[in-house]
Write a structure and sequence with these properties.
Largest sheet of chain A: 3 strands, antiparallel
CATH class of chain A: Mainly Alpha
Strand content of chain A: 15-25%
CATH topology of chain A: Arc Repressor Mutant, subunit A
Structural class of chain A: alpha+beta
Oligomer: homodimer
InterPro entries (chains A, B): WH-like_DNA-bd_sf (IPR036388), WH_DNA-bd_dom (IPR027395), WH_DNA-bd_sf (IPR036390)
Number of strands of chain A: 3
Number of helices of chain A: 4
Helix content of chain A: 40-55%
Number of domains of chain A: 1
Shape of chain A: elongated
Largest interface: A-B, 25 and 25 residues
Radius of gyration of chain A: 15 Å
Order of helices and strands of chain A: HEHHEEH
Distance between the termini of chain A: 10 Å
Protein name (chains A, B): Transcriptional regulator
Chain lengths: 97, 97
DNA sequence: GTAAAGTGGTTTATTTTATAAACCAAAATA
DNA sequence: TATTTTGGTTTATAAAATAAACCACTTTAC
């Protein structure tokens, strides 16, 4: 009855990041940090997890002399997000038996 | 932008239990165990947490000689569930900026 | 009747996660 | 030139989920 929820997406910060990236071509680290109201440490860790799963790509460059991390959702990430949203519906629409 | 999700509800098993109880007058331990496909140990722990938060009530009696645990959602639980579902929408409907 | 397995759980231990704290290099500011 | 700020990473700690072990009692099989 209840499908398992993708544990990578069923976590507040990672879900927020993915949600933002779903509607954005790309987003910078600092932008995500602000929008999600997270600490840099936490965000850094969670971005790495999403990247390791292949849900997002991370491009690390420099803007002038300062580091610049740019994030993009991948096709795999889009698919995973959509699947997650779909699976979650079972939990939210409390269907009677 | 992203409201904090109630950590008590943002957990697969507890959410599944609450989802079931939203549409049921009451449910027995074994019923919830089957429907959620969980182990007795895990379910026991998570039910206790929901009960401690006042989201459900647990009635422990006997049926014949065997223990019988009956679970019910409380008004507080209903409110929390509805709030959670509402908050979650922000994360799912990826609104552009 | 008594050993073995099953029911309906609880308790404790282990693993996994999330979060926070500490740190680092470079740059900007005072 | 010391101090703070920026843009992060790495490491340590706290919290959570899960699994394993256990318990009381019952039923079934010898």
């Amino acid at each position: 009855m209840f499908k398992d929820l993708d544990p990578l997406l069923h976590a507040q910060l990672r879900l927020a990041v993915m949600s933002l990236l779903m509607s954005l071509e790309s987003a910078e680290f600092t932008f995500l940090k602000e929008k999600t109201n997270s600490t840099a440490g936490n965000l850094s860790v969670q971005l790495d997890k999403l990247a390791e799963a292949g849900y997002i790509s991370l491009e690390k460059t420099f803007r002038g002399k300062k580091p610049l991390t740019t994030c993009r959702i991948t096709p795999k990430g889009v698919a995973a997000f959509e699947q997650y949203v779909n699976d979650l519906k079972q939990y939210l629409n409390h269907n009677p038996l």
